Amino acid sequence: MRGLLTSCSIAAMVVLISVLAYSQDQGFSPTMAQQNFAVEVKSLPDVIQASWQSPLDLWVYADGVNQANAQAVADKVILLAQTDLGQSLCVHVHNGDFNPLATKCWSSL
Question: In what side-by-side order are the strands of the sheet with 89-94?
Fold first, then answer.
């Protein structure tokens, strides 16, 4: 009986690990509202790309910006989010290397 419980426990752990690995491989899929918002953000000056990396994290690639300009881009994105997106988020502005020059968060609550 004890061996059966141990085998079932091991099997359950294997299934759980497999499900977690599969879900991580699938990545995050933004909602339609998030996709539309990313398109709107890409229309801002200096912005090359905007992509959702999680339900709350928007990464913005702004080419050739310094820290002050990156902060200004983050501020603009937050203002847009308050009026056009209506959800909490953190904006991370980088210039191509995914090292954020500016990060700003806003809560819709």
Answer: 47-52, 57-62, 89-94, 102-106
For the chain, domain boundaries: 32-106
Contact at 8 Å (CB) between 47 and 65?
no
Between these two residues, 16 and 52, which has the higher pLDDT value? 52
> Please, what's the largest Cα pairwise distance for the chain?
68
Q: Is pTM beyond 0.85 here? A: no
Asked whether the beta carbons of 28 and 59 are under 8 A apart, the reply is: no
Quote the DSSP letter at residue 63. T
Q: What fold characterizes domain 32-106?
A: Alpha-Beta Plaits (3.30.70)
Q: Do 37 and 85 meet the contact criterion of CB atoms below 8 Å apart?
A: yes
Q: At what angle do helices 32-42 and 67-80 cross, to 10 degrees?
A: 140
Q: Is residue 58 a contact partner of residue 50, using CB atoms and an 8 Å limit? A: yes
Q: What is the CA radius of gyration of the chain?
A: 20
